């Protein structure tokens, strides 16, 4: 029983981690918490669903096509909505993303309706049984995809010039500009990339939560919690945070009671932040003068 | 400074006066209504129109129920096209309460006091309906077909409340009886939503199962917003009951059944009618849903020759072409509207609340709607307790029994 709960928890946790990656990416470059991240993911999942059902494209073709659209969509959101308020206080920008969250949800409801629909899984639905523990190919797939994406972006930030430019932009826009970094285009691209990450997350999460305009509601909150638990600036932290939350939730639901699982999860987060305010893998924020 | 003080004092006095005036006028208006009842119609009725209202969530987490309002409108379109009710056209107003009880209260007040509707039809949400019940009871406005099967609206009977869909408590007992008689169950596991709705079901099932001497092997709950049900499925499998009762909304029920199937759980499964709809096939897949049992209280579309079915399919395909008319939810909504209109028809030209309520109580085993045997008396307000057992077979929900009438 415990083994199966842990596997189930890891599976749920990878979903949270996957959804958290896009949040962290934007936060790392622009200090903005993008509340609309989950709803952008949902919109892209709907677009992918439209490719699948209306134009009857194969799964991976519609997957890739919708990611291309995601990139353009993410950049457009930055250009149209975020750019004009770039110089405004961070809080105003965050509130704007909250507004986008409501707009996207409403728009999706108008276009696709609110009745939930099933979404196909990435790989054929097969599962293995090993010493009484069941695990599906898709659970492994989600975990692998999340890890690869995390590692990829981790290395990208550490070792590429663009990564460096992104980090620099987050530190100080004016200085970064003086160093010859096109800060605006860095921001635009970051939004494009995190929309892609959101799209991947949405498409992989939809078979579990089903597809409707509210699909990212609960996952979005847990992703946010995962990001905070891991330290909001750390990509590996998102995975650690996500998996921890998933497993802890499962154990509480299995051995204590399922009503209390969210309560315990957030109690755990408070405890961790009390001991280590920057989160498990978060870097200490120091302002150099 | 003094001017400001004087101004605010005047304002306070005005407010107090307005408040007193408000209560005064409302008492006179009820008095008037009583006097008028012998001569004049109640609010919302003119020479050529009857105004009906209700709230449904059209945005927010439960926005899928917004479809109910479209179905009511569609039925009214049909009635109006046929000449209306005794020459009066029906007009329907829906207010979006976003599935938040606080907004429901405002919506109910708006409908009664500003829009001045004649009756309230098919309003969603157990908690939401409960929140406004004292207010609507005090006003005395007819509330027809509350879209909830909670006992709060029928037990004890309330003068202006007419329920219609199967009572939750009763369905849980029908499940238990069926598990005992037909499925020969020795043990039952319960998967339920941890709120008013699920707990009513759970309590009734546990009570009935104990009476029948059937063991309750597991009680697994979840919160409405949960997305992962692997722990519950696992505990259920471990308890290995003969039958699993699912008192859950569509998404959690579908997720749980998928998970239960994946880890090799095997049991007869019975799913509450509030979720047993064609959407379940979309969500969980036909394989997983194969064999799942439920009850239905609305007539099946299979009976194509039935004029009631024909008029339903024709009108819905015309007004709401995007939706599959086979949806149980839509058929239910159609039945709600039919029962209301029947009451209006029977009221003739005497459209007072008093008379409408009296006429509704003349419905006895009325079979003219999509529901079976609709009945109301002054102390029986369930509407109906007649269901058929249904089962998911080959990607469809089909009726597998005759009408079973449960006597509460």
Structure characterization notes:
- The complex is a heterodimer of chains A (289) and B (408).
- With 289 residues, chain A is an all-alpha fold.
- Chain A has one domain: Orthogonal Bundle (ABC transporter involved in vitamin B12 uptake, BtuC).
- In chain A, 73% of the residues lie in helices and 3% in strands.
- Chain A has a two-stranded antiparallel sheet with strand order 1-2.
- In chain A, helix 1 packs antiparallel against helix 8, helix 1 packs across helix 9 and helix 9 crosses helix 10.
- The longest helix of chain A is centred in the N-terminal third of the chain and has 29 residues.
- Chain A starts with a helix and ends in a 14-residue tail after the last helix.
- The model of chain A has no long low-confidence stretch (mean pLDDT 88).
- In chain B, strand 8, helix 8 and strand 9 form a beta-alpha-beta unit.
- In chain B, the strands form 3 sheets. Chain B has a 5-stranded parallel beta sheet, sandwiched between helices.
- Chain B is of the alpha/beta class and 408 residues long.
- In chain B, helix 5 packs parallel to helix 6.
- Chain B has 2 domains: 194 residues, Rossmann fold; 144 residues, Response regulator (Rossmann fold), CATH 3.40.50.2300.
- The termini of chain B are far apart.
- The chains are: A mainly alpha (289), B alpha/beta (408).
- Chains A and B meet through helix 1, helix 9 and helix 10 of A and strand 7, helix 7, helix 8 and helix 9 of B.
